[in-house]
Amino acid sequence: MTLKQLAKKLNVSISTVSKALNDSHEISKDTIKRVKELAALYNYVPNKSALSLKQSKTKTIGVIVPNILNHFFAKALVGIEKEATKNGYQIIVCLSNESLKKEQDNIQWLTNGSVDGLIFAVAEETIVERESSHFKKLLDLNIPFVMFDRVLEDVKTDKVIINDTEAGYKATKSFINQGRKKIGLINCIDNLNVAKLRQTGYEKAIIETFGELNQKLILKTSINNIQDKIKMFLNENELDAILAIDNVTGVIAINIAKSLKFSIPKDISIIGFADSLIARYAYPTLTTLDSRPDLIGSTACKQLIHRLDSNQLDSTFPKLTVIDTKISSGGSF
Amino acid sequence: MTLKQLAKKLNVSISTVSKALNDSHEISKDTIKRVKELAALYNYVPNKSALSLKQSKTKTIGVIVPNILNHFFAKALVGIEKEATKNGYQIIVCLSNESLKKEQDNIQWLTNGSVDGLIFAVAEETIVERESSHFKKLLDLNIPFVMFDRVLEDVKTDKVIINDTEAGYKATKSFINQGRKKIGLINCIDNLNVAKLRQTGYEKAIIETFGELNQKLILKTSINNIQDKIKMFLNENELDAILAIDNVTGVIAINIAKSLKFSIPKDISIIGFADSLIARYAYPTLTTLDSRPDLIGSTACKQLIHRLDSNQLDSTFPKLTVIDTKISSGGSF
DNA sequence: GTGAAAGCGCTAACAA
DNA sequence: TTGTTAGCGCTTTCAC
Lengths: 333, 333
Known about the structure:
The structure is a homodimer of 333-residue chains. With 333 residues, chain A is of the alpha/beta class. The first copy, chain A, contains 14 helices and 12 strands. Chain A has 3 domains: 3-44, no CATH class; 50-162 and 293-323, Rossmann fold (3-Layer(aba) Sandwich), CATH 3.40.50.2300; 164-290, Response regulator (Rossmann fold, 3-Layer(aba) Sandwich), CATH 3.40.50. The first copy, chain A, has helices at residues 3-10, 14-21, 29-41, 48-55, 71-86, 100-110, 124-129, 133-141, 164-177, 193-210, 226-236, 249-259, 276-279, 293-309; strands spanning 60-65, 90-95, 117-120, 145-148, 158-162, 183-187, 218-220, 241-244, 269-272, 287-290, 320-323, 326-328. The first copy, chain A, has a 6-stranded parallel β-sheet, with helices on both faces. In chain A, strand 1, helix 5 and strand 2 form a beta-alpha-beta unit. In chain A, helix 1 (3-10) crosses helix 2 (14-21) and helix 5 (71-86) packs parallel to helix 14. The structure holds a DNA duplex (16 and 16 nucleotides).
C-alpha cells in the first residue's frame, strides 16, 4: 500500500494524503480523519527506502562486532539495541570475526548510505597491524562513528571505554588486602590494549606493595592449550591468588585449581573479568570485575545518536567516556 | 558522490554513467574505462536507498532473536550472518527478549520495506500465549520468512529445527548403554516445545527399557533458585545419570554434584544440551548434545535466500528441514 | 554509442 | 484547505 493508492481510493492528491498522515495543520480535521482511517484499514506503512532517499537519513545504525560469541560483545549489543530502539533506530549488525579484511569490507559495505552512523569495537587483527585508514575514510566521508572498548588512539572520534588500568589495580589491591602474597596474572589477550592496561594496573599495585615485580607470576600466552598451561603455571608457582584478565580463563582456572586439589578460596583466590553469567558456571562461583558491557553499549549508542541528531559537531567532540568497572563477589551454591 | 555528479564531471549523461558502471554492452569500452576510473577515484558507491526503491528489493534480511545472550542464538546468528554476507545480503538484527509485544513491534517495524525477508525463532511468550496472528500478517503481505528452532505448528512457512525427540532419545539411550539405572531429567524450559520433544525422547527410551516412567526422576521447574532445586533433586533421588535439556543447567548440575562429593562420571553421569564452549566451563567437561546452531542458522538463511531469489513459491514450499544433533563427549583437563 | 525521460514512494515549496 | 510539481539517486525503455 502506497500513498498513491490511498490517494486514488480517497479521491484526493498524494500530497494531501502525505500531509494528513503527518498531521499537517494545512489539512482539515475531517480529511485527516478519513485518510488515517483508510491508512489504518490497509495497514499502510511508509516505505523505508523512499523515506531514506528523500530525507537522506536512514534511521539505521551500523554495528560491527568482533565476535558475537564473546559474552562481553553480546551484552554490549543488547545495550546498543535497547538504546537504538528507544530512539527509533534500527541496527544493522556486521561481524568482523576479529579480521581486518572483514572489518574493512563491512565498513565499505555500510558506507553506501545504509546507515547514518556506526558503532564498533576494533578487530584484534586491526589492532595488531596498527591499521586505521579505513576509519579515517569514515572521517573524510563525514560519517559519525563511536568506538567502544577496543579503540584506536589515533582516530579522532567519540569513544567509550572502561577504566582498565583502574580495574586491574583494584582487583590486585583486593588480593593484597586479603593478605595474599603470590599473586599471579593470566593474560591470553595480550594483543589487545585493554590487556596491557589491566596488566599495568596489576603491576602498579604489586610494585606499590612489594616493591618489585616477579615476572614468573605473569602468564602471558595464547588461548591454545590454555588448560595445560594453567596447570603448569599453578604447579610451578606457589600462587595464592590469580587475576585472569580476559573473560573466560578465570572460570577455567578455578576448575583446574580444584582438580589440583586446591581449596578455594582458602588456598587460592581467583578473580576474573568474566561477567556474572559466565561466573555462575564455576563452582565456587568466580569473583568478577564486571566491565559493564551493556552500559558501554548503551552509552556508545546514546553518544552516536546525539551526534546524529545535533547535526553539527559541538565543542564536546571528540568525547571520551570512561566507564568504571564493578567488582562483584561470586555467590556460592 | 552520485551518478549525477560523475556525469557532470565526465560531460556525459547520467544514464551513460549508470550503464557504464554496470558494464552494459551498449557503451563503448573507452567510455566504460573513463567512467570506472573516475568512479574509483571518487570512491563512488551506489546509494542503497535509491537502489532499494528502484528495484523494490533491499538485499537485507531481518533477523529476530529472542535472546542474544543465549549462546545457542548467538551461534545461530553467526551462521545466518555468514550465509547472508556470502550472498550479498545485510542483516538487521532485532531482539525480542522473549516478549510477544516486542516481537510484534519488531515485525511491524520491519515490514515497512526495510527487509526482503525474515528469519526468526519465536519468543517464549508468544509460544505460551499461542499467538500467531502477527506471523500470519507476514503471509498476507507476501513477505517470505523462515522460522528456526522455536517454530509454530500452525504457521505455514519454511522451518528449520533440530530433531529434539531423537536427541532426547539418543542421550537417554547412551546412559542406558552405560548401565545407568536411575536416569533423571532436568527441564526448566518446559514452556518451549523443544523441551517437550526432548522429554518425549527421554520418556520413550526409559519406557522402552524399564517398562515404566518414574515421575520423581523428572525435575520440571523454573530457572529461579535452580541451584537449590538441583541440590534437593540430587539428595532425594539416588540418581546415576542426569539429562539436562536446556543449555546451562548441565554445567550447573556438574558443579553441584561435585560439591556434594559425587564422583563424575563414576557415581553420576551428566549430559547437557549446552554447546562445547559452555561445556568447557565445567570440570570434568560436560558431555553435550550439540544442537548445531550455526548449521541451523546458515540453513535457515540459505532457505530464505532461495525463496527470495526464485521469486515464486516452488513445489517444495513450505519446507521443513530437520537437523540432526551430534553427541560429543567432553574432553578433560 | 549516447541521451532523454519516466518512475520507484515520498516530502515540501509553491500555486491555486 | 487542497493540488501541482520538483526532486532525492537510481535503472531502463525508447529515441536519436
